[in-house]
Write a structure and sequence with these properties.
Shape: elongated
Number of strands: 0
Order of helices and strands: HHHHH
Oligomer: single chain
Largest sheet: none
Number of helices: 5
Number of domains: 1
Length: 126
């Protein structure tokens, strides 16, 4: 087994794991109950999927072809910086638009910060 074969194997492994993470992300988006958990699945796992796929392509082109692709590096940096911020803004705008979370949600930590005028039932009993 020579070095080129090992580099191809590592690159293919990264791309394969990235594809599997994309499938996990798609399943999470379809199966999860509300916009907050779907946003989490859509940003965390799909960001990892895209990063692994681009990293596999970068390793392949660098190791086999001898090309350091600035476009791939910029793509990795761009996705790493913008995807989590976009997911956060989607969840934040959903919360501010008063989209209800699922019934399984235990605690709303932002309620006291953003809506201090509303009291919960336990606060009324005190």
């Amino acid at each position: 087994m020579n070095v080129n074969t090992m580099i191809e194997f590592v690159a293919a492994l990264f791309i394969l794991v990235g594809g599997l993470m994309a499938i996990v992300s798609a399943i999470g988006i379809v199966r999860l109950p509300d916009v907050y958990t779907r946003s989490h699945a859509g940003t965390k796992s799909s960001t990892l999927a895209v990063l692994l796929t681009l990293l596999g392509a970068f390793i392949f082109f660098w190791g086999i072809e001898g090309i350091i692709s600035i476009r791939l590096i910029l793509g990795i940096v761009f996705v790493f910086l913008t995807a989590p911020v976009g997911g956060h803004l989607i969840a934040r705008s959903s919360y501010r638009s008063k989209v209800k979370p699922t019934e399984d949600t235990i605690e709303d930590e932002l309620k006291d910060v953003l809506h201090p005028e509303t009291e919960t039932q336990s606060e009324k009993e005190e």
